[in-house]
Design a protein that fits this description.
Layout lengths: L11 E6 L3 H9 L5 E6 L6 H9 L7 H10 L4 H8 L14 H13 L2 H11 L5 E4 L5 E7 L4 E3 L1 H4 L6 E8 L11 H6 L3 E4 L4 H9 L2 H9 L3 E5 L3 E3 L8 H12 L6 E5 L16 E4 L4 H6 L3 E5 L2 E4 L2 E4 L1 H12 L1
Parallel strand pairs: 1-2, 1-7, 2-3, 7-8, 8-10, 10-12
Antiparallel strand pairs: 4-5, 4-6, 9-11, 13-14
Pfam families: CofD
Subcellular location: Cytoplasm
Protein name: Putative gluconeogenesis factor
């Protein structure tokens, strides 16, 4: 049994993912006495991030990194609002760009490294924890469908509405991606590793498909927790149960590595979801606890639901409460 030395020090918690779910969890984790490391996907190629990575081809996409920095920062709300401000669509060449994305782009160019830019911004923004891009190079996400066809580009995958067989990542030049500095060490030294919440194929797996990161997850002695999505996603996880999510994760790393799964069992009220705003979501993920246990997972099932703004989210405080139980 691993000696829990963090009884006399801050436990080291590594959270891996991207999208909108990761900042929700990190914001709640920030209030705990923990040594937090966020490892953030760099395969996004849509919206403001996509436009910027086309303009500065050596820069990792900034959008997910921007949101994570804000979630872990204790800077005044006005500063956060300025950093998160998104220009109006009629503002010509600035249209839809978040100011923080432009700042990250500028600093990445100044330092000739997105990794270095994020470390400098972490200091400036009083970030409580460490934020690392999963790779210092922008990555291209590729999806291979069950029918044998394939597509390249994170933003294009869901458009096809096909069943995904597997995904993989490359550098823009086609080379094998490498993990950013300190990412692998953080995973190997962690007491707890949390995957998600976030899109399975486009926010979580792009990190794991970097060979060094996948290997580190198989080697680590830390408890590895998957926060299962509440809703299925169009063109990604249609008709998925919670057990299907785990099968996909294990298939991609070619062996079981998830120890515990957090599953929401609270029902979303009928007619609550605003599907015009949240058009990527379909129905609630179904449950197959027997299959989860057959795959070697401990299951924690309870109410993790937060309803706001016509959308369905994880309640970060409730998730962290369970993570603390696992740790201690």
């Amino acid at each position: 049994m691993k000696l829990k030395t963090y009884r006399i020090r801050k436990p080291k918690v590594v959270v891996i993912g991207g999208g909108t779910g990761l900042p929700v969890l990190l914001k709640s984790l920030r209030n705990q006495s923990m040594d937090i490391t966020a490892i953030v996907t760099v395969a996004d190629d849509g919206g403001s991030s996509g436009e910027l990575r086309e303009s500065i081809t050596t820069m990792a996409p900034p959008g997910d990194l921007r949101n994570v920095l804000v979630s872990l920062s204790d800077m005044p709300q006005l500063y956060a609002d300025i950093f998160q401000y998104r220009f109006k669509k009629e503002d010509k060449f600035l249209a839809n760009h978040a100011l923080g994305n432009l700042i990250i782009a500028a600093m990445s160019e100044m330092r000739e490294s997105t990794y270095e830019a994020i470390q400098l911004l972490s200091t400036m923004m009083h970030v409580q924890g460490k934020v690392y891009p999963s790779s210092d190079q922008p990555l291209v996400l590729h999806a291979v469908f069950k029918d044998g066809t394939s597509v390249s580009g994170e933003s294009k995958i869901a458009e096809h509405r096909k069943t995904i067989d597997h995904v993989f990542v490359t550098q823009a030049c086609g080379a094998t991606p490498k993990a950013a500095r300190k990412v692998v060490t953080s995973i190997l030294e962690a007491d707890l590793i949390v995957l998600g919440p976030g899109s399975l194929f486009t926010s979580i797996l792009p990190n794991l498909m970097i060979p060094e990161i996948g290997e580190a997850l198989l080697q680590t002695t830390a408890e590895t927790v998957y926060v299962c999505n509440i809703m299925t996603q169009k063109g990604e996880t249609e008709h998925f149960s919670d057990a299907d999510h785990i099968k996909i994760l294990h298939q991609h790393l070619k062996q079981p590595f998830i120890d515990t799964v957090l599953v929401n069992t609270e029902k979303v009220p009928e007619g609550y979801m605003d599907f015009e705003v949240y058009d990527e979501y379909l129905v609630q993920v179904t449950h197959d606890f027997n299959d989860l246990r057959a795959q070697g997972c401990r299951v924690v099932s309870t109410d993790f639901l937060e309803l706001r703004d016509g959308g369905v989210f994880h309640d970060g405080d409730k998730v962290v409460e369970e993570l603390l139980r696992i740790l201690y």
